[in-house]
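Record Chromosomal replication initiator protein DnaA, 474 aa.
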Amino acid sequence: MDHKEAWDHCLSIIRDNIPERSFQTWFSPIRPIKLSDKVLTIEVPTSFFYEYLEEHFIDILRKTLFKVIGADAKLEYSIIVHNNTHNSKPYAVKIPTQNKSDLTNRPVSMPMGSNSTNNIKNPFVIPGIQKLNIDPQLNSDYNFQNFIEGECNRLARSAGFAIAQNPGKTAFNPLFIYGASGLGKTHLAHAIGIQVKERFPEKTVLYVEANKFERQYADATRSNERNDFVHFYQMIDVLIIDDVQHLAAKQKTQDVFFHIFNHLHQSGKQLILTSDKPPVELEGLEQRLLSRFKWGLSADLQVPDFETRKTILQKMAYKDGIELQDEIIDYIANHINTNVRELEGALVSLMAQSTLNRKEITIDLAKDLIDKLVSNTRKEITLDVIQQTVCDYFSMPVDQLKSKTRKREIVQARQIAMYFAKSKTKSSLSTIGARIGGKDHATVLHACKTVKNLLDTDKRFKSFVTDIDKMLEN
Ligand SMILES: Nc1ncnc2c1ncn2[C@@H]1O[C@H](COP(=O)(O)OP(=O)(O)OP(=O)(O)O)[C@@H](O)[C@H]1O
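=>
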C-alpha cells in the first residue's frame, strides 16, 4: 500500500464519521506525501490547520491510522510555509510558540522607535484616549456571551475565542474576519477585545475603524505628529481594525499601517482585522499588505441557516425578557434570511409595535409586520445570498458549492448559482468565478450559457431555476 492508497482508505473512514462540512473543510485540502516505516506524512496548508486537526480530530485520526496502517502507525505533518518549503512535525507534538518564527517566513526590518512609554505623546483627538491607559473603545454588549454560535460562524468564533485566551500566541495572527454586512464581524471583533481585557487587564487593547485610523493619521501628519502616531499604535497589545477595505487606495495610510502591522506582529502582539471581502478580493490594497493578511487565519461569517436564525431569535427575545411562540419564531426566521442585523431589527419592531399598541405579540401581528418589513426593505441579493439559497434548495452545504468537486449535482448547482450571480448582481465574471468554486471568468460564461440552454430544453431543470428565482425574489 502506498501513501495515496493508505490516505484514501483513511479518508473514507473519516468521512463516514464526521459531518460532511467538517470533512470538506479540514480533510479535503490535505495531501498525502509519503508512507515509510508506518509513518504517514501528510501536507497541511498552514500551522493553524495542523493545530486545529490536533485539537479536534486527533482521536479519529489516531484510530483510523491504527486501523489502516497498524498499531504502531505514526503521522507526520508537513506544513507549507511561506517560502514554499515544508516543516515536518511528529505526531501529536504541538508546535512550540517560540519556534513559530521558523514556520512563518516573516520579513520586517523596519527601524523601531523607542519602546519607552515616558516620552510618547498621545496624538489622538478621541476623548478618553491617554497614553497607555487608553479606553479600548469596546462596546460591552458585543461580548462572547451574546454572540450566538452556529455553523455560519463556528470557525471564526472558535479562533476568536482561542485568541482571547492567548493573544499574540496562537497561529491566528492576524485573525482576518470577513463576511457581508450585518453578519457579526464587528460584534465578534469586540468580543475578542472584551475577553482579552477581562483575562489580561494589563494588556492594551484598541478597537478602531479603518476610516477613523485614516483620519487620525491625516491629522497627525498635518500637525507633524506622524512619529507619535506610529509609536502610539506600536504600543498596543491587541489591535482591532474594523472594515480594512476602507483603506483601499489610501496609499499613505496603507504605508503607515504596514509598518505598524510589522512591528506588532514581530513583537508577538495580536492583530484582528475585519473586512467585507476575503483578502484575495480586496481591491486597492497593496500586495505586501494583502500577503500579510494571509499569514494567520482568514475566517468568514456566512448567512446563518434557518436553525441558527431561530436560535438567534430565541436568544434575543429571551434577553429582552419576552417569550415568543415557536410559530412566530419560525415565521420570522423563514422570511428574514439575509443577516443578523435584520433579524434583530424585526424583533425590535415587533416588540415596539406590541408595546405601543398594547397588543399581544401574536402570529397575525408578526405576519403583518414582517410582510411589510420584507416588502419595504427588499433584500439585497448578494453572492452569499445566492449561494446560500441555491444550497438550501438542493440541501447541500455551501462549502461543497465553493469546492472544486466535479460531482454532477454540485456542478449543476454551481452553474445555477453563477447564472443568478450574473443576472442579479453587478459582480464581474471573475469575481463570481472566484467566489463560487474558485473558477475563472470563462467558466462563469460557460455556466450561464449552459443554464440558458437547459432552461429551453429540460423541464425539470427549469422548475429548479424557477423555484430558486422565487426564493431569491421573495
Ligand atoms: N452571531 C451573532 N449572535 C448575536 N448577535 C449577532 C450575531 N451576529 C451579528 N449579531 C448582531 O447583529 C448586529 C450586526 O452585527 P455587526 O455590526 O457585528 O455586523 P457586521 O458584520 O460588522 O456588519 P457591517 O459590515 O455592516 O459593519 C449587531 O447588533 C450584532 O450584535
